[in-house]
């Protein structure tokens, strides 16, 4: 994997990465909610000049069933160039693909043909539990000391969850990252601010409170996560907790320079609401993912409940402005896509990825198998769409790009060829 010069997809600054060549492929984690058919890593053609534009061009099946592929990532990224932990000759080549339900981790090689990736190594659940001390691996980030994987539970499936490290060349599991965890028990995502040697982690819940769906009785007791944790990156010691209060539970995705925006619920006809929401007489936005453009100007917010994908100008973080919005799917709206304006769609904007130049936005519509059915009880038909983002703000559907997913699977995480706005950390702005 070592090369004589840095990978050409690595950039020391976010500004330089914004000028990188346009992506031509996307890798999408797809899972079978019935856990009867193997999950797949699907390759999508993103080149508008290609005859296969907007199509799945390859499907890589996992060797087992029941993985529930979730959030995956590259083995290496632009953080390899940072002076605090340099390993500039590592290559962005492999995708680290965990199964959230199985606790299995797959190493996928995207070379020699990036349109036909293949599996080169698998860590079985027993190996992950023994070497990492954790299970339910959730999110993968390439970082200063290797590959960081967040996990939602310990080896027994209970608290605490946390972070473990993998070597970015051998893919060996090195062990738990935390040295002093302090009050941290629940886990979900993790990110860092390299300039301040700081790691931030968020919270969701333990497997018993999400693997078979969200548990309404848990919410009143405030037992889902509602805190952020701040750590020293190099000493791996817990430094601070920020508690949002029990009324703000399920603290999900983290992005650099995160901003906070309130989005209200929308009143809805009771007949259009699933049993879980009838008592509220409204559709909550259900913000399940966010993405920030590399220039820190535009924040993209996925409202899986209402079906909105929103764009905010957050260049002045104290005065965020809504600059663009589209609606597709949604619990009550069932809004159509211009590709098929007569077709009501379910699911809603969920996992979001933004191109490095900020001009293209991709998203899929499934959250998690057991939770999908709670909010969309008539079943979710998977799809993926692309939006065009105007330089001065504003969003529009690419009418040529609407992918109906195979009925056996639902699409989740998206990664773009060469990196995207949520997969890399940069040494400089």
Would you kindly provide a written description of the structure presented here, covering whatever features stand out?
The mean pLDDT is 93. A hairpin with a 7-residue loop joins strand 20 (308-313) and strand 21 (321-327). The strands form 7 sheets. The chain has a 4-stranded antiparallel β-sheet with strand order 3-2-1-26, with no helix packed on it. 4% of the residues lie in helices and 35% in strands. The two termini are 28 Å apart. It is globular. With 429 residues, the protein is mainly β.
Instruction: Please give the number of β-strands.
Output: 26
Mean pLDDT: 93
CATH topology label? Methylamine Dehydrogenase, Chain H
Q: Tell me the span between the first and last alpha carbons.
A: 28 Å
- Can you tell me the CATH superfamily? YVTN repeat-like/Quinoprotein amine dehydrogenase
**What structural class do you assign from the helix and strand content?**
mainly beta
Q: Strand-residue fraction?
A: 35-45%
Rg, Cα atoms, Å: 20 Å
The first-level CATH class is given as Mainly Beta
Notable features of this structure?
429 residues, mainly beta, Methylamine Dehydrogenase, Chain H, four-stranded antiparallel beta sheet, 3 helices, 26 strands, globular
């Amino acid at each position: 994997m070592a090369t004589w010069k840095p990978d050409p997809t690595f950039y020391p600054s976010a500004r330089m990465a914004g000028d990188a060549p346009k992506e031509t492929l996307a890798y999408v984690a797809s899972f079978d909610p019935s856990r009867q058919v193997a999950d797949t890593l699907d390759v999508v053609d993103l080149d508008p000049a290609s005859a296969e534009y907007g199509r799945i061009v390859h499907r890589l099946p996992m060797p087992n069933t029941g993985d529930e592929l979730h959030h995956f990532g590259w083995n290496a990224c632009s953080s390899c160039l940072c002076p605090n932990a340099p390993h500039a000759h590592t290559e962005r080549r492999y995708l680290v693909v965990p199964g959230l339900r199985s606790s299995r981790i797959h190493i996928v090689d995207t070379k020699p043909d990036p349109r036909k990736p293949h599996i080169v190594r698998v860590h079985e659940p027993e190996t992950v539990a023994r070497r990492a001390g954790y299970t339910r691996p959730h999110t993968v980030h390439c970082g200063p000391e290797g590959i960081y994987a967040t996990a939602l539970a310990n080896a027994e499936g209970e608290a605490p969850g946390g972070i473990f490290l993998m070597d970015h060349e051998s893919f060996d599991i090195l062990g738990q990252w935390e040295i002093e965890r302090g009050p941290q028990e629940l886990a979900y995502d993790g990110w860092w601010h390299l300039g301040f040697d700081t790691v931030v982690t968020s919270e969701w819940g333990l497997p018993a409170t999400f693997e078979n769906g969200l548990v309404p009785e848990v919410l009143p007791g405030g037992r889902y996560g509602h805190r952020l944790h701040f750590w020293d990156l190099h000493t791996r010691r817990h430094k601070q907790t920020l508690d949002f209060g029990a009324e703000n539970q399920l603290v999900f995705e983290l992005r650099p320079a995160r901003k906070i925006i309130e989005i209200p619920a929308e009143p809805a006809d009771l007949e259009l609401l699933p049993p879980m929401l009838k008592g509220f007489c409204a559709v909550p936005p259900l913000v399940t993912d966010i993405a920030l453009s590399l220039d820190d100007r535009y924040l993209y917010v996925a409202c899986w409940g209402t079906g909105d994908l929103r764009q905010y100008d957050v260049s002045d973080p104290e005065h965020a402005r809504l600059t663009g919005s589209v609606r597709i799917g949604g619990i009550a709206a069932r809004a159509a896509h211009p590709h098929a304006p007569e077709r009501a769609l379910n699911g809603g904007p969920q996992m979001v990825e933004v191109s490095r130049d900020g001009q293209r936005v991709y998203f899929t519509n499934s959250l998690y198998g057991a939770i999908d059915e709670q909010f969309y009880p008539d079943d979710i038909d998977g799809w993926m769409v692309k939006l065009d983002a105007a330089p001065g703000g504003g969003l529009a559907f690419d009418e040529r790009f609407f992918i109906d997913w195979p009925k056996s699977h639902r699409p989740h995480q998206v990664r773009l060829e060469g990196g995207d706005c949520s997969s890399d950390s940069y040494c400089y702005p």
